[in-house]
Amino acid sequence: MDLLELWGGPEPTVNRIGDRFQDQSVLSGHHDRDDDLDRMAQLGLHAVRYPVLWERISPEHPDQHDWAWTDQRLNRLRELGMRPIAGLCHHGSGPRYTDMLADSFAPGLAKHARAVAQRYPWITEWTPVNEPVTTARFSALYGHWYPHTQDEGAFWQTLLNQIDAVRLSMQAIREVIPHAKLIQTDDLGRTFSTTAVREQAAFDNARRWMSWDLLCGRVTPQHDLWRRICRHGFEDRLRAIADAPCPPDIIGVNHYLTSDRFLDHRMQRYPAHTRGGNGKQQFADTEAIRVLTPPPPGFIGVLRETWERYGIPIAITEAHNGCTREEQMRWMADAWDAAHQLRGEGVDLRAVTSWALFGSCGWNTLLTAPGIYEPGVWDVSAGTPRETAMVPLLKGLGSDAPKHPVMAGQGWWRRNIRIEHPVTPRPAPMREYLLSPRWSDLGNSPPVLIAGATGTLGQALARYAAHRDIVHVLTSRADLDLSDPASIDAALDRYKPWAVINAAGWVRVDDAEEEADACMAANAEGAVRLAQACAARGIPTVSFSSDLVFDGTAGRPYTERDVPAPLNVYGRSKAQAEAGIAALPGKHLMIRTAAFFSPHDRHNFPVHVVETLSRGQRFAAASDSVVTPTYVPHLCNTTLDLLIDGAEGIWHLANDEALSWAAFAVRVAEAAGLDPSLIDAVPGETLGWKAQRPANAALGSERGVVMPSFARALEAFTQSVARARATEHRTAA
């Protein structure tokens, strides 16, 4: 058996919502970056799933083609030694002059396929339609995408039109390229359920195979769904497809952590957004990984099922997890590990595909509205692709290259934190209850050392490192004293960390005005001393600075390029630390941030707002000092991601809104359902501040939008506080 190949692909979806088309290649910037292909080549990719989409080539008329972009890109892929797998329709409904319910769809795509084959007769691998079942569900059954129907008959018509589009396209392509191969993709998981909704689960589990069953000529009168589809008037269509099948040369399995589902008639066990039904029964539909014990068998399960059902070569054609960085890496490692295990069992598994290389936009809204950007192997939030830790991971697959220390941890899908709802047992062999050794097991992995055990930030960083299964050590002053070089050396020699995060230091801004020496000793001299010791050992560091390094006169948000001009002692201590650490050799990440708030710390501004207003009392807040609030959980997760990626230099990390403390208080009150009229907007000098504050120290960034929005932060904060207060009330009762 040939070596397992590594494939890749940028997210290329062009989908239609009403009259609006949305192009992921444009949203990610890939459309305008010629050098992205060179970036992809450095990963060692053998093949790339690449768009030659009907909507992009012939948007206005089927006889009008614009080949300029694909000529340049496809020829460059060829020069770089990466085989293109040409995608012709990716979650799309075709250009404006057709749609998936139209009789013109299948012959129209076939005409486009012929034109592409004639233009690029050297391309041998093709995916005319990506994920036909998934696209039909989202477009015709759920109504999310054009043509926005919600009807089972329209679903089957949409699916059959896509299957005919594949068949006719491959026929047209093979008339030009006789040896062309079909790589047919679809999302594949399994539906589990309680007994009460087993019929729906059985239907879902039969429907999931329909793209491949149809193409393989398996949908005949003996098929489980034959009668159901025929009741919608499609018997002649089914017979025509079965009489002229077009089996894939490779079955492309796209599997996500959301692909396996669990249906439960006990809806009271689940939040409202999971509840739905089929018109006959009501049930909750949630991710099986969040409920079942043991968890679903994941890649191993769906790939083994696929091989046993078809005996056709398989590729994992999308492997991606939109999560924290180490979880992205662990999921990719799981895919690679599963592929090797199955190949050892005799399964003809050809490749694993790293998906969404440059990230994706709006999948949290299912592409129905603007949504969040989700980084891929490269983070393009700043416009210019930034390598994440996925790059060295992919380069090292299949080799003895050193693994990143965070790979010693288990993915969240293998830990107890995966459970979000009451547990439902899943019948399974005993071996599935046992954790097996992983490809990523690194034994005694070195820790991240976090200095600052008594501080809010140090404790929060340790909390999120633990949640992410990142080995870490949280040190107090007794373990690591920033004022004592010997103590620093001893701690570094004892723990031998792979990175150090300095979350220790002086935090009392007003007290610093009267205790300047102590503040400077902790924030400047101690911080530089620790970074020097790390630099001598080649250990990367993370340090934290503040918006108070600026004087507030810029009249715009400050970026990483702006020169500090502090107004107070605390700001000077942080500016001095920045300068001292920047002069050191090695990798040092300096994070400027501002106005912490967290549900886990009772001594921060919005907690005081909630507690005060809940008592019906008035709350005074400064109206003349503008800040950029920063939600500590978001700060911690982003900091850990950047550290894992090997980021360095100054980064501004804050949520995305600049507002006065008084406006901040009003937003908190509104989000918590409290009375904002109890907020008194006052000058800062009336609050007893000793240290001068900048009038507007808002933080912006040239590095990209790597933090979630302030609106999301505030929602998470108020929900967490509400849960905590409800727990307190139950305990008191």
Automatic annotation (TrEMBL):
Protein name (Swiss-Prot/TrEMBL): dTDP-4-dehydrorhamnose reductase
Q: What Enzyme Commission number(s) apply to this enzyme?
A: 1.1.1.133
Species for this entry? Sphingomonas xinjiangensis
The enzyme class is: oxidoreductase
**Signal peptide stretch:** none
Protein keywords? NADP, Oxidoreductase
| PANTHER family per record | DTDP-4-DEHYDRORHAMNOSE REDUCTASE, METHIONINE ADENOSYLTRANSFERASE 2 SUBUNIT BETA
Question: What Pfam families would the database entry show?
Answer: Glyco_hydro_1, RmlD_sub_bind
Q: Where is the RmlD-like substrate binding domain?
A: 448-703
Cofactor(s) of this protein: Mg(2+)
> Tell me, which GO biological process terms does this entry list?
carbohydrate metabolic process; dTDP-rhamnose biosynthetic process
User: Which pathway does this polypeptide act in?
Assistant: Carbohydrate biosynthesis; dTDP-L-rhamnose biosynthesis
